[in-house]
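Internal tracking record. Fields below are filled automatically when a chain is submitted to the structure queue. Please do not edit lines marked as system-generated. If the sequence contains nonstandard residues, flag them in the REMARKS field before resubmitting.
Queue: standard
Priority: normal
Entity type: single polypeptide chain
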Amino acid sequence: MNHASKLKPPIIDPWLWASTFGETLAAGFDPIGLARQQRGQRLASLLRAARDSPLYEERLRGARVVAGLDDLHALEPVAKPELMQRFDDWATDRAVTRAAVEQFVQGETHLADAFLGKYLVWTSSGTSGAPAIFVQDTRSLAAYEALDALRFRGSPLGAVPLAAWSVGQRFGFVAATGGHFAGAATVERLRRLARDESLSPLGWLAPTVQTFSVQTPLRELALALQAFKPTVLISYPSCAAALAQLQLDGALQLRLTEVWLGGEQLTGLQREAVRSAFGCPVRNNYGASEFFSIAWECEHGQLHLNDDWVILEPVDRQSRPVPVGAVSDAVLLTHLANHVQPLLRYRLDDAIRFTGQRCACGCAFPVIEVQGRSGQTLLLHDADDRAVTLLPLAIETAIEEGAHVTQFQLLCTAADALELRFEPELADAPQAFAHAHKALARFLQIHGLANVRIVHGRRAPLRERASGKLCRVRYARHDGH
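SYSTEM-GENERATED OUTPUT FOLLOWS
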């Protein structure tokens, strides 16, 4: 990212931002009545806006959808491949074309810049399938920022809004870099907002933010973080757990006030390891590139759905609704804030369970459980039999970016052996393996693992027995041996 890009002001509508914060704060006081009312109004507004999308106008007319939740259920679900294939028919702003967006996201020069002067663009990493491009309008951004500020830190009533983003804090953000990913674009946008003197004359008092690549070898990453001395660490659960082990071993000596996690499923063991190693609160959230702040975690460790801004319908493999208490095969997501690139009953392949139980924290926002979306951290051995830790998302990103494949599974079959499998329907698996092998070998060499063998597995990827989901990086056996 060049210096000139960093100086460009972020897109923001102060009046919309203020009203969105006010509405989100008010809903925290009455999450049943007011949130339901807001949800109905926002859905009706979204359905009206979606008529300017040729793709959705067809679907809405065919399903005779007018307004309201009952009408929404009549709408046929949509999935990522269809939206990307019909990208030029998707947006309500006809100037948003695939050619223009793809040119805009080439390289990192325009990371967090305003596309067409009024939108923020980010791409998905492809960790749950094929990558996609998402265009966010000012309404979406205001909603995300209100949800993060007012609820993320465990207070639906907004008792500590923006407290973490304060003077003297140093944020170390460890994530996928090298592209316009949602996390990278959001952090860069917030960094600019904090330092924009047109918004705040005290911009020079803003916190310091530095981004680190999750693909960096773990020991090098630890050294870089130690030099930066963050007070807040933001990353994936697998990365934070690996850093926690280095902290316990004495190879890392960070003094953190909080750890913020997302992007993967957080296990109980990971939470305890991170909390014990760093001696600070651990904040977890559930989001996606499609909607950045789907649910937040309260002080009792429960995920509460932001259902005043997003509608989630848990469904089975045939997109039929599943009852409360049952684990879904997927969810249908309706984004109530984004009017430029509508998402109505969009299929996310996440296994979700609505518990139907009231949380002990007293918040009435629905409690959900999220299953899946996490690979396994691998422990390989170099030529001198020294252990080297590899993070799942770093491996996935290396293969995706180097080989341009997303439907794969990497199995660790031995301490120095990996097996790469592809879905049976992949047209040219040998060529895909050749590209993936080259990218993965380069990644392993950087981590001092040039000795590790990579073979092409001819069998289908292993899937979870209960959910049927694909864990893309894992041991050949679940016990990690």
